[in-house]
Specification:
By secondary structure, the chain is an alpha/beta fold. It folds into 4 domains: about 50-405, ABC transporter transmembrane region fold (Up-down Bundle); about 425-505 and about 590-650, P-loop containing nucleotide triphosphate hydrolases (Rossmann fold, 3-Layer(aba) Sandwich), CATH 3.40.50.300; about 515-590, no CATH class; about 660-723, no CATH class. The protein has helices at about 35-40, 40-70, 70-110, 140-190, 195-200, 200-215, 215-245, 245-255, 260-275, 280-295, 295-305, 305-360, 365-405, 470-475, 500-505, 520-525, 535-545, 545-550, 575-590, 605-620, 630-635, 655-660, 660-675, 680-690, 710-720, and strands spanning about 125-130, 135-140, 430-435, 445-455, 460-465, 485-490, 490-495, 505-510, 590-595, 620-625, 640-645, 645-650. Helix 3 (about 70-110) packs antiparallel against helix 4 and helix 10 packs across helix 12 (about 305-360). Residues about 1-40 and about 690-723 have low confidence and may be disordered.
Length: about 725
């Protein structure tokens, strides 16, 4: 939403809270997203599960590519720390088993009588089992074995802590790098998208969701991926030990977390669906917050006493959003508790089984310690794998918005072999039967428009609101391509140019000009950003627009921060901001100059001063300007009048006044307002001033045709075109 736009945020329709289910699916509960077919069909549910698995596995490489591109060293450190850390629990459990057995052996040795016939040996080898056999250490005393194992346990714990520290450091730094990389990717890709992408509500929602979620979600998915690797290694190393006790014990530990995983997956999909559907609601909430927390809207909000209106609108939206989130969160965690009870029962049964094995003498005390830890680790690891996969699935759904954005392609693109822009560019502009219509709108914004602007000519575009004036400007700047016809600059179709190289030859001041929250120097210098430090060029541009007087009064002149977003910023009036924006257009010093309502915010004196300099300011440039002030328009070499997307009149001010058509009617209406006379009286005054004996018979705009429409001679002599 543009910060220069004004207007009210409409309240939600009565009788319906925002964010509620708007699906036509009759089987959906009021607070739930539409129930998909896979939740009603077991086969569909299974297919959806495999589909989600494929989608998540497909998303992981894309996220890893983002992380790898952000920092290879940090990624390698995190990967190494994760792999080693995944083997630490099994190593600790096995070392604990050896230590407990060694302690039991030492206790038994010291407890036996000195005269025992079969006395246990006081020295023994430290034997460590490995998958391919056993490693036998040197002969040690029983106390020596205990000490060595205790030190080994200490070393393993220290290594584990070090790995955790390295993992935390690398993950935190990687999070910052990935966040910045994703934001840069969004900025770089958004910069190349067409204006139409930003003017489409659905695509704008995608952009906002990507911007909001994608800075944290990639890191969550990366940490989750490495966490899954670590958990998988722990799981695989432990399950071998558990199977040695009993395969059934392993099966129970594996099955117990599955119901909880299914519940998490179900509510994870609901959470994503609700968040996706509520994206416009959250965007409206953010906009309402902006209305009451920025200086852009503060004056109008206070004068119209809109505070309570916007606050109530926000409260209504927020309450509907909260109710939906509350229902989801409550159901999700209650379901998790119910299934968690089953997991607890399975854990208790596991402990009982292992204890009975120890009582029966089938296990040593060290085995009991090892297998108890193994059973717990297998169950928790498997549950972590399932819940981790659920988190990855949910993150992947959110990241879909980012990848959707990154896959969006612009329509206005450079050709494979662009034609070089002529240097110097003369600035001749030709519209050759140009038509254009906005997507989703039946009426053409421009309909078969043809005209030519000579190099160095100043042309004014006039017409009522919605006539197609701004659309014409957008087409000249190649923000859109025509749907029919072509636009030529110096005889070359502008679609043959590289858009970036072509736009370097256009200086523009739009009606909704930007108010950059930077210094006055930068505000003007951005018109030719490679010359940001060229103070001479900046001051020259400011003098041409009249902004020099404004800037000279600022505390630090050209180094003063403009706007109130940052410290020591100074806010300007609308007319002062407009002068700065116009200076930015002059800073461009381009062959083609476009001014959209250049005097709309200027006071009468500033407007008069600008008029006096207008010819000099546009000398040597092809200038196109839009204005509803006919005192400005009459200064143009030629005037083009648009109506309902068609070119209906063109010529000089004198020719169009003599034509007595649409332009003459609007000019006379505006002049009447200034003179305080009737339209007929104004027409007589204008006729007397121009030396015309008889005043033209002006008709109402609704009559459509000009009095001269039936006179071929009149049309030819005036140089205008009939619709």
């Amino acid at each position: 939403m543009s910060m220069n736009q004004r207007g009210h945020m409409p309240s939600p329709p009565a009788g319906r809270k925002p964010g509620r289910n708007r699906s036509t699916n009759k089987g959906a509960a009021p607070d739930e997203p539409a129930t998909p077919s896979w939740r009603r069909d077991p086969r569909g549910r299974l297919r959806s599960l495999f589909s989600s698995i494929r989608g998540t596995l497909t998303g992981i490489p894309r996220v890893l590519a983002l992380v790898w591109g952000a920092s290879r060293p940090l990624t390698l450190v995190l990967a190494a720390a994760t792999i080693v850390a995944g083997l630490i629990p099994a190593t600790q459990a096995y070392t604990a088993k050896l230590l407990v057995n060694a302690v039991v052996y030492a206790i038994t040795l010291h407890a036996q009588p000195a005269s025992a016939a079969h006395r246990l040996p006081e020295q023994t080898h430290l034997t460590i089992g490995v998958p391919w056999g056993a490693i036998e250490g040197p002969l040690l005393s029983t106390m020596g074995v205990v000490i060595v194992l205790a030190v080994l346990q200490l070393v393993i714990s220290a290594v584990s802590a070090l790995l955790q520290t390295l993992s935390n450091i690398s993950q935190q730094l990687l999070q910052e790098r990935v966040g910045m990389r994703v934001q840069l990717l969004i900025m770089e890709h958004a910069a190349g998208l067409d204006l139409s992408y930003f003017e489409n509500a659905a695509s704008y929602d995608t952009l906002q969701q990507a911007q909001r979620e994608a800075t944290s979600r990639p890191v969550q998915m990366v940490s989750g991926t490495f966490g899954l690797v670590r958990t998988a290694l722990t799981f695989l190393s432990m399950i071998a030990l558990l199977i040695a006790v009993s395969p059934w014990l392993a099966v129970i530990a594996l099955i117990a977390p599955i119901p909880s995983f299914i519940a998490d997956s179900r509510y994870g999909w609901w959470g994503y669906a609700i968040a996706r559907r509520n994206s416009p609601v959250r965007r409206r909430m953010a906009y309402l917050l902006t209305l009451l927390t920025t200086d852009t809207f503060a004056k109008e909000v206070k004068i119209f006493t809109l505070n309570n209106h916007f606050i109530e609108s926000f409260r209504t939206l927020a309450e509907g959003y909260y109710q939906e989130q509350r229902a989801l969160v409550t159901r999700r965690y209650l379901a998790g508790y119910v299934w968690g009870v089953l997991t607890t029962l399975a854990s208790s049964g596991t402990y009982l089984f292992v204890a009975l094995q120890a009582v029966a003498g089938r296990l040593t005390l060290g085995d009991l310690t090892l297998y108890t830890q193994a059973a717990t680790q297998v169950q928790s690891s498997f549950q972590s794998l399932l819940s981790g996969f659920t988190s990855l699935y949910e993150n992947n759904l959110y990241l879909g918005a980012l990848f959707d954005l990154l896959q969006a392609q612009p329509r206005v693109v450079a050709p494979a072999t662009p034609t070089p822009v002529p240097s110097p560019l003369r600035g001749e502009i030709t519209f050759d039967h140009v038509s254009f219509g906005y997507e989703g709108v039946e009426r053409q914004a421009l309909d078969d428009v043809s005209f030519t602007i000579a190099p160095g000519e100043t042309v004014a575009i006039v017409g009522r609101n919605g006539a197609g004036k701004s659309t014409l400007i957008k087409l000249v700047g190649r923000l859109y391509d025509p749907t029919a016809g072509r636009i030529l600059v110096d005889g070359i179709d502008i679609r043959d140019f590289d858009p970036a190289r072509y736009r370097e030859n256009i200086g523009v001041m739009l009606q909704d000009y930007a108010t950059y929250q930077v210094s006055a120097r930068e505000n003007i210098g951005l018109g030719r950003h490679e010359n940001l430090d060229d103070l001479d060029a900046i001051t020259t541009a400011a003098a041409r627009s009249g902004a020099d007087g404004v800037i000279d009064r600022l505390p630090n002149q050209y180094e003063t921060m403009l706007g109130k977003w940052f410290d020591e910023g100074v806010n300007l009036s609308g007319g002062e901001w407009q002068k700065v924006a116009m200076a930015r257009a002059f800073m461009r010093d381009a062959p083609i100059l476009i001014l959209d309502e250049p005097t709309s915010a200027l006071d009468a004196q500033a407007e008069f001063d600008l008029f006096q300099k207008l010819r000099a300011l546009t000398y040597g440039h092809t200038a196109i300007f839009i204005s509803h002030r006919f005192s400005t328009v009459r200064m143009a070499d030629r005037i083009i009048f648009l109506e309902n997307g068609k070119l209906v009149e063109q010529g000089t001010h004198e020719e169009l006044m003599a034509l007595d058509g649409r332009y003459a009617h609007l000019f006379t209406l505006q002049a009447s307002a200034y003179l305080g006379t009737t339209e007929m009286e104004t027409a007589q005054l204008l006729a007397a001033e121009s030396g015309t004996v008889e005043a033209p018979a002006y008709r109402a705009a609704s009559s459509g045709a000009s009095p001269h429409d039936a006179s071929p001679h009149g049309a030819a002599s005036s140089g205008w075109q009939h619709p």
